[in-house]
Amino acid sequence: MKIYEKAPAKINLMLDVLHKRRDGFHEVEMIMTMVDLADRLEMSELPRDTIFISSQAGYIPLDEKNLAFQAARLIKERYDVRTGVHIHLDKKIPVAAGLAGGSSDAAATLRGLNRLWRLNIPDQELQELGAELGSDVPFCITGGTALATGRGEKLTPMPNPPQCWVILAKPPINVSTADVYGRFRSDKIVRHPSAAKMEQAIRNQSFTEVCGQMGNVLEDVTLKLYPEVQHLKDAMIRLGADGVLMSGSGPTVFGLVSKESKVARIYNGLRGFCKEVYAVRMLT
Ligand code: ATP
């Protein structure tokens, strides 16, 4: 028996960091949604009690460091499953990009194995399992659009933003999420984005208001460390994207575009100097 799952990338329409907690994590407020750029996972039962990961991508770990492996091990242990599984990862989401690719693979693994092994675990419980693997995993279980608080694991679902094009560009640098959070100083932030205002913009289904409320306080750190991310933002704005923001801790920059007629020009303009560019639809 084989099960297929799609693991889409997430973007943050807004990201605010409130303060550092006693446990070392930061208290955040984020509105996240998904885009139609996705990894595909194929899960098949193995006769032996083992977890085997394969991928066409030569640049990700295939051992217990892989988040899909960790998700499979967690669900197997917690529900005492004695059969093995082969998970093939067809990677499309750029790695270490601020798009939660690994987290989405982990979530897709939990969803897929829940079906493959007929465990009937409710979403809420899958989300609790996911929180043990990473802060973005609970959101990736159900996807859609949500306000995430706490360290990102407390979710309040909300309506999807108005449909539009999303152009993503990843400069060829690796950004460590831990390093960005480590350097973040909330007292240096002049303007915090507002989750309440972004939520209202989404409820109004106003594309212009959504673009106007976009903000990510982590840009303050990443753009200073990596000027190429700032250049990418400037280029996207110059080429005519309606709202431009860095996703997560970066380095991927995304632009929201309402008119299809603008998409090719922005895409081609960026491709002139950036190898990894994608033009996709918002997943609504
Ligand atoms: P986030 O936005 O949650 O910080 P990210 O998009 O920046 O995530 P990922 O693509 O999830 O980062 O990869 C981060 C690290 O996790 C990489 O160093 C990678 O080697 C490792 N990793 C483990 N499992 C996976 C996986 N299934 N896919 C991609 N990377 C993985």
Automatic annotation (TrEMBL):
Superkingdom field: Bacteria
Amino acids binding ATP: 94-104
Domain GHMP kinase N-terminal: start-end pairs: 66-144
Protein EC: 2.7.1.148
Keyword annotations from UniProtKB, A to Z: ATP-binding, Isoprene biosynthesis, Kinase, Nucleotide-binding, Transferase
Residues at the catalytic site: 10, 136
Listed InterPro entries: GHMP_kinase_C_dom, GHMP_kinase_C_sf, GHMP_kinase_N_dom, IspE, Ribosomal_Su5_D2-typ_SF, Ribsml_uS5_D2-typ_fold_subgr
Biological process according to GO: isopentenyl diphosphate biosynthetic process, methylerythritol 4-phosphate pathway; terpenoid biosynthetic process
Domain GHMP kinase C-terminal: 199-274
Catalysed conversion reaction: 4-CDP-2-C-methyl-D-erythritol + ATP = 4-CDP-2-C-methyl-D-erythritol 2-phosphate + ADP + H(+)
HAMAP family per the UniProt record, alphabetical: IspE
Family: Belongs to the GHMP kinase family. IspE subfamily.
Role, per record: Catalyzes the phosphorylation of the position 2 hydroxy group of 4-diphosphocytidyl-2C-methyl-D-erythritol.
Protein name per its UniProtKB record: 4-diphosphocytidyl-2-C-methyl-D-erythritol kinase
